[in-house]
Specification:
The structure is a homodimer. Chain A is an alpha+beta fold. In chain A, about 35% of the residues lie in helices and about 20% in strands. Chain A has two domains: about 160 residues, PurM-like, N-terminal domain (60s Ribosomal Protein L30, Chain: A), CATH 3.30.1330.10; about 180 residues, Phosphoribosyl-aminoimidazole Synthetase, Chain A, domain 2 (Alpha-Beta Complex), CATH 3.90.650.10. Chain A has a seven-stranded mixed β-sheet with strand order 8-10-7-11-9-12-13, sandwiched between helices. A four-stranded mixed β-sheet of chain A has the order 3-6-4-5, covered by helices on one side. The longest helix of chain A has 18 residues. At the A-B interface, helix 1, strand 2, strand 3, helix 3 and strand 4 of A face helix 1, strand 2, strand 3, strand 4 and strand 5 of B. Strand 2 of chain A pairs antiparallel with strand 3 of chain B. Chains A, B: This is Thiamine-monophosphate kinase.
């Protein structure tokens, strides 16, 4: 990606000229999207399931979608604000677009659904170049193509800072899977590994501060690349969600956006349960473990409250668990780990630290990211 | 509405506490919403048409909507940014919420649909009080109750300036009405009156500048109130759209958000037509005419390019027009006016000024509001 030294002023293309250029940027990125080996090609999913179709997209007062007979429609929306959720960087325009769509796809996957139609509202600073906006769209287009998502509408406005709001519509493949279906005795599982995104963020925030004694010098280039990618360009777990739905037996599910601790509290509140989380069982990637050791950072804090992992956390009765784990491994090539179990609500939401003694069972703090703290 | 001198800091209630308070603010405003005489009670519309229902709303990864068999789903989204689309004012928090939903309801009505489910993403400055956000929600809740709209999800984030993004889902009552169905010979009609919103904006921008010679002193309190209301608290033309759909025969429709001139250009582009607009026929409210005369402002500029009228502009074959006008008058109590007709594309998009001579037929400038100029 080239640093954009000079660009086309927004005023020179006009609002409708801009919209046309952006639709093109999305389309050409979507057409040229490299096949990603993680999870296999998923663009076919929508066409396989979907008699629904977008009759009219961009260019009218509203988009029109037909043929939703018998399908549950899923709708999610997320707002990302410059300076709060991301720092604007010319080198990372495309990654910004990718992540803005990814976090919404992750929400749809966490309902047991496939993503279908995206609506992007974007606030663009007056001083931005057309190429800046095009790159954001191109990033979204790349991810969209991979998961069969169509840009169906949106709004382009001026603002002081960059603001992206994505509303994503999807379809539940079977029944939608909410947060409230868990029961005492169900095991709690998580896909992939947790804490990598927080580790990547730590690397990002430490950039340019690689002084002696910070331990940064000891981090390998491969670890650095992997962890930055996990933070800046996460993979939504669509293939994993489809494997879980295909197998059946998942009672509650959500994605890990705020952090495992916070999500366990959500699952417990909606399912009217308590929980015990086995801290030693949390799946930690070796690269994340190495970074925490090299830099003296709190590995468990990354894993429990770091957030932005976009893994799936879900519950299922014990007898379903071996089959679910096998199905996800087979269909998506991803490991799934049992990290605890749901209990009666009166037992509270507890973290169990090794060795398991009475004094090592403590309340699991729910601290995720509070936007207003 | 009281000016909020001191309020509850956002940080003191936490993110989830805030979401709960906002849902309550919406609900209690919706429950206490006064019946508005314009157009009659419309909340019944959704339940009358709709087997579709919101299975799960706020509180999961995505909202779930079932039962869309045979219905066309309509989706529209709009982003409003402080300092660009509105100035933050403690006195007008509730009006801001009302208008943010209204402009989206207007888009759904302009497709011949009824609004159903709203998703609100809101960016809130860190220094704002909980009561500020509650008032915005309460305003939306008032409008939502009147039109049968349910708050189905959203996102609450921190930002430097206030940002509101509403995504609204609706259902087409019969076939959706787009912008592309007009044909040469169709008449062009508009509901209500145009230019009032621009007149109201002029009053707003002139506030505190009522010097001698500006003509402001001559404006009656009744005119002032009416025009400000037309700008700050427009009425979406849902009852009018339903009357048009009920009657049938409308070939193309949209709402007047950017201005009549701009919308005529859209209709012509999508319908592959030209147009002749009879400038003398534009429906101008007497209050708007009086304000333009008292202040020396350009009445036609207000009517043609002022925008934000949220009237419906539509086309229909001449033989359908008397029936359509009668139906809207009967069902919604609103006047509809013929303002021109579609022509062959080669004839261009023309404005006809009185008296109709060759030199009084000139190209209709498309200048709406360009966000990046």
């Amino acid at each position: 990606m080239n640093r954009q030294k000079e660009g086309t002023p927004l005023a020179s293309v006009g609002e409708f000229g801009l919209i046309e250029r952006l639709a093109r940027a999305w389309q050409s990125a979507a057409a040229g999207s490299p096949d990603d080996s993680r999870g296999g090609g998923l663009g076919c999913l929508t066409s396989a399931i979907a008699s629904p179709r977008l009759r009219w997209g961009i260019g009218d007062d509203a988009a029109v979608i037909d043929g939703l007979a018998g399908k549950s429609l899923l709708v999610t929306t997320d707002m990302l604000v410059e300076g709060v959720h991301f720092l604007w960087s010319p080198e990372r325009r495309r990654l910004l677009g990718r992540k803005a769509l990814t976090v919404n796809i992750s929400d749809i996957a966490a309902m047991g659904g496939i993503p279908a139609w995206a609506f992007l509202s974007i606030g663009v600073p007056a001083g931005a170049a057309v190429e800046d906006v095009e790159e954001v769209y191109a990033g979204m287009g790349e991810v969209a193509a991979r998961y069969g998502v169509v840009l169906a509408g949106g709004d382009t406005v001026r603002s002081d800072k960059w603001v992206l709001n994505v509303t994503l519509l999807g379809l539940a493949v079977k029944g939608p899977i909410g947060r409230g279906g868990g029961a005492p005795g169900d095991l709690i599982l998580v896909t992939g590994s947790v804490g990598d995104s927080a580790a990547g963020l730590h690397l990002l925030l430490s950039a340019g501060r690689e002084k002696a004694g910070t331990g940064m010098a000891a981090v390998s280039e491969a670890d650095r690349k992997l962890l930055l990618s996990r933070h800046l360009d996460p993979t939504p777990r669509v293939a994993e969600a489809m494997a879980l739905v295909e197998h059946g037996g998942v009672t509650a599910m959500m994605d890990v956006s705020d952090g495992v601790s916070s999500e366990v509290h959500h699952l417990c509140r909606n399912s009217v349960c308590g929980a015990r989380i086995d801290v030693a069982a949390l799946p930690i990637h070796p690269a994340t473990r190495r970074l925490a050791e090299a830099t003296g950072q709190d590995l468990l804090a990354w894993a429990l409250t770091g957030g932005e992992d976009y893994e799936l956390i879900f519950t299922a009765p014990p007898e379903q668990v071996p089959g679910l784990i096998a199905q996800v491994r087979q269909d998506a090539g991803t490991d799934v780990t049992v990290i605890g179990r749901l209990t009666e609500q009166a037992e509270g939401i507890m973290a169990v630290y090794p060795p398991e003694t009475d004094r090592n069972v403590v309340p699991l703090a729910a601290k995720g990211y509070n936007h207003f703290r």
